[in-house]
Amino acid sequence: MGEKLDKVLGRLTFRRALTRWKRAADAAGTADLSNVRTLRGQARQIRRQIDRFLHVADGRLARPAVGSSAIRKPPMSDWAWRPEIWCGPISPSGIAGVENRAIFGSETTVFHDCGTRELTLRQVRNGRATDLAPYGLRMDVFRFDGSFLSLVIDLPDDAVRGLRLTHIIRLDAAVETERPLEIFARLNIKHGPNSEQIVRELPLGSDEVMVEFDLAYTRMNEKRVERAWIDLIFEGPDMNQIVLRDVTMSRRPRAEI
Q1: CA distances to 70, 139, 219, 255, 257 from 244, in Å
Q2: What's the pTM value of the predicted model, to 2 decimals?
Q3: Burial 7-22 (b: 16+ CB within 10 A, else e)
Q4: How confident is the model over 38-57, as pLDDT tens digits?
Q5: What is d(CA 163, CA 157) in angstroms, rounded to the nearest whole number?
Q6: Which of 214, 212, 216 is nearest to 165 (CA)?
């Protein structure tokens, strides 16, 4: 009851204040100057608080909503997906001194052979106007004495259900780096006792990049597909900060000619 009353009183107070300032604005051209001076001082005090509120509110509301499912995907796609790290908060939200085979969330595993382990992972909140993903993943790599660093992301069952050699699988990513480096994406598909691999280099040079994997160039046995995963491989990552603002996957059938 008290909460409803507060809401009613709040609406009435707002309407009275709005009406008062509307009248003041209408009369500003003819009102007594001493009265205008007083109202101007009050208006400036109110405006400072309103500007503070709008700055914070616009920043929060401009962020992608947690759980957003908006994904850029090509026409005719029959499957599209964003891993959990880029969808919503995970726990823990960060790892320092990341060990080989460290699990981050329920879908991602970190592989490396670095002895010093000067590597941290942290989930960050996206806030750019162009971001579709609510969250991003930041990797801070300091001294790196290993030969490889990769993120392995397990694809869901829907990714391989009904998978055919006529499919093209696409990876879209939004990437920021402090220093240039090479990033490769490797699609792995397990079918029976065998696995197929396709490697593509991400064409860095812009914030948003894309690579495609055409399954027609594999020997995948359509009847025995069990699971799939993607490796993001970082070459020469030492002394760098890498932010993956978004990672999405989709698939579509190849156009018949």
Answers
A1: 17, 8, 31, 31, 36
A2: 0.75
A3: eeeeeeeeeeeeeeee
A4: 888 888 888 888 877 765 66
A5: 10
A6: 216
Residue type at position 52 = R
Q: Give the integer Cα–Cα distance in Å for 103 and 155.
A: 15
In the structure encoding, which two tokens stand for residue 250, read together?
């989709």
Beta-bridge partners for 184: 201, 233
Chain segment 85-126, per-residue pLDDT in tens: 998 888 889 999 999 999 999 899 999 998 888 899 999 998
Q: Which of 198, 145, 205, 212 lies closest to 175, judged by CA? A: 205
* CA–CA gap between residue 241 and residue 119 (Å, rounded): 10
| Closest-CA residue to 93 (of 60, 125, 118) | 125
